[in-house]
Amino acid sequence: MSGVAYLAARYLARHKLVSGVLVAALALVVFLPAGLRVLVRHSAEALRARAIATPLVVGAPGSPVDLVLASLYFESGAPQPVPFSEVQHIDETGLAEAVPLHVRFRTGGKAIVGTTLAYFRQRELRVASGRLPAVLGECVVGASAARDLGVRPGDTLVSSPETVFDLAGVYPLRMRVTGILAPAGGPDDAAVFVDVKTAWIIQGLVHGHSDLAGPGSDAGVLAREEGRITANASVVEYNEITPENLDSFHFHGDPGAYPLTAVLAFPPEARSRALLMGRYEGSEARQILRPGGVIDELLATVFAVEKSVVAAIGLVAVATLAVGALVFVLSARLRRREFATLVKIGAPRGTVAALLGAEIALVTGAALLVAGGLVFVAARFAPLLLRSALAS
Amino acid sequence: MADRAIHFDNVRFGYGDGDFMLRIAKLELGRGERAAVIGPSGSGKTTLLHLAAGIAVPEEGAVRTCGVEISGLDDAARRRFRIRRVGLVFQEFELLDHLSALDNVLLPYRLTRALRLDDAARARAESLLQRTGLGGKGSRRADRLSQGERQRVAVCRALVVEPEVLLADEPTGNLDTDNKGRILDLLLGCADEAGAALLVVTHDRDLLPRFERSFDVRELSG
Amino acid sequence: MLCGALLVSLACSGGEAPPPDAESTGGRLQVFAVNEPLRYFAERIGGDAVEVHFPAPAGVDPAHWSPDPDTVASYQGADLILLNGAGYAGWVTRATLPRSALVDTTGAVRDRLLARSDGVTHQHGPSGEHTHGAKAFTTWLDPTLASAQAAAVADAFASRRPELADRFARDRAALEADLLDLDARFAEAATALDGAPLIFSHPVYDYLVRRYDLDARSLHWEPDQPPAAREWRRLETIVRRHPARLLVWEAEPLADTVRRAAELGLESVVFAPCGNRCEGDWLDAMRSNAERLAAAAPSEP
After folding, report:
1. What share of chain C is helix, strand, coil (3-state, %, to 5)?
2. What is this model's ipTM?
3. CA-CA distance, C108 to C85, in Å (whole number)?
4. Check: CATH 3.40.50.1980 for C2-114+130-181?
5. Which among A2, A11, A338, A345 is the top mutation candidate for probing chain B, defined by the most B β-carbons within 10 Å of its own β-carbon?
6. Where in chain A are the domains?
7. pTM for this structure?
8. Which chain B residues are closer than 8 Å to A6 by Cβ?
9. What pLDDT does residue A221 have?
10. Nearest-CA distance from A32 to chain C in Å?
11. Which H or E element spans position A375?
12. Inter-chain CB proximity C2 and A247 less than 8 Å
């Protein structure tokens, strides 16, 4: 280190508080816009990557943003449901593989996503341990959700009731964890996946009860007419699916009318996508969305907000720099005697300027280092922050 | 003339709006000679030291220090000359409070590339501190030293570059008799050792017997 | 009925699913069948291009069998899962299976399916009536329906292995010829019966009855269990109104039951639906059924 730099460093070290405040203020001034930008860009990338990986979303009419956020990020601001028959409808066109999504319930704060096996294939989700759900009542848990919930294959999870007193009789369901997914770096990590039929069980649409027609079932029967049995309220509504009662689960009404949050459609190529979108043109009962487009619109708003925030931070930065400069000028005044001594000893011309310059450079350098570190951390945790922001 | 440590020839120097005028017709100090300058406050003692060190430049006449006519040099050259060849002890020591005692002693080495901060310089600084009784206090910050300790650090700083001329401005001011004696011993001893000429400004007539000669600044005007 | 609709809706995608992924095209198609006829059709049509799995253990009725979850998981790796449709193998509705692999082999002939004769309806409280009783599912006992199922199998194979479509079509044609021949043999046996009333030990012969216009009533008797006294009394009542001479069993009945039935003037004859593995191959077993039925036809009115 040159002599002047050494002297500058000693001076700053002697005045730790002032130096610290200057470094912190300057670091913040640099970090705020840079960090915000990194955060927004990373988040935007993550959002866009997910959106691009999802060619089409079909749902009921309503807010496109809600529909995309619910079907891509499992946000529970639930849009209007779309019937299961939509999956069949898309399948029958032969233009895309339709994947149903049911996002309504939660367990331990994690979304319970009802879907089919195709979801795991389309999203390239791998099972790290255990296996995928095979029968009703089984679930597979995303990597971070498993960590947060502290579950392993063989454990159980209970769905959260939607309200404390659920008079409609939607009982919490105890689900068996059959597997943990490998981390995929997206919202899938934080979700719990079940067969869509299991989601309908939680919703009370599919249910199991003791065999009413069999022998010894009279206690639960109100009336038994020819080929027609009325069950009374004592019939057990299972809140756990066991090998013993699994076979008693059955479906009421037309399953085609069962509700889904959305249907993801994965066309094999662009032409099929265009054709499928064409099929929905002018439809008032459904909307078909390219999540990429919706997210881009959302991001345009975010970027606009970012711009104004950065402008505001710019003003603050100017003020901060002015205050910083003032601090230096005042301190230089207080140090006039010290500088005079240097001259009397015989310090070369420009030594004082070099000393002040070195001090400014050190403070700025330290501030940039701190800001850089913060930006790095922000970049590292941007996806995490994004997830928690979306989750809240 | 070349063997003179300090040589003033018809020097005239004025301050401010001509309120104060210092005239020195002749002043000579031989190499290795030890002299004291006395005079009342405001009589120009400190100015005389500043002229000898090249901190101030006379309006008329010439100042030669170590055989160099510094009154004819430009500012940069005078600074270069001063930092390498002149040791200065200021009236109020003028230490840098945020530096340690050792860093204060080594300060000239940090300010110019003309001096090399090498092991020899460090050893010299440490030995000076040792000799002035500050052996264990090299790393102590200057603002945590006592008045006497600060004064000794100031002397060490003046001596570290092994100057040919040592100029001290009231080095014993504000000190008790014991400390006055000790500082004077130090200055005289070190100057002796280095073969440096010593010019000390003082208003304390009790000290004069320690010097080979002394003069009143008012008597130099001719 | 509605249960069947669900099964179909969950299984509908079948051959219209997206093309197979490249990695599976190299090896043999992994095909799971839910019953013996479909296993037989798959092997006849697929040959060495397919590897057919039929995990139901021998001795159980695959219609009512449920695989344990780990066995279900093995189905998840299937390229094709051949379903009988008509509510057969109800576990499929409770399992998580790849929709794109499911093939409802009676999907194209849904309008020809029969309601099960012993269906039960129940309801939860005053509203919400729903039917658990569903379709009759022993569809293959009508060889023309079996032929439609074979066609669905062949189509599914061809969609997964378009390059082998000609071979599948050829083998399917041969199978179809055999099924037509079987149809003729059944018809011959029915002709031999000449409208004589029949009693079936179990109500699983609806498609046979319809196809060949048989005059039949059904019991709920198991061949390996002696009927209770009440059941015998019921049989006597039926025979009084429906003067049958033949009692048709799914499998060889107990000797004592055969003797007591004979006392009521009923000759026991086995017509095995072969939902699960039967002796010899499925077609032979069906031909044997036809022969036994024809042989047992009463020679005098």
Report:
1. 50, 15, 35
2. 0.92
3. 10
4. yes
5. A345
6. 3-46+299-391, 56-208+249-289
7. 0.68
8. 110
9. 44
10. 47
11. helix A351-391
12. no
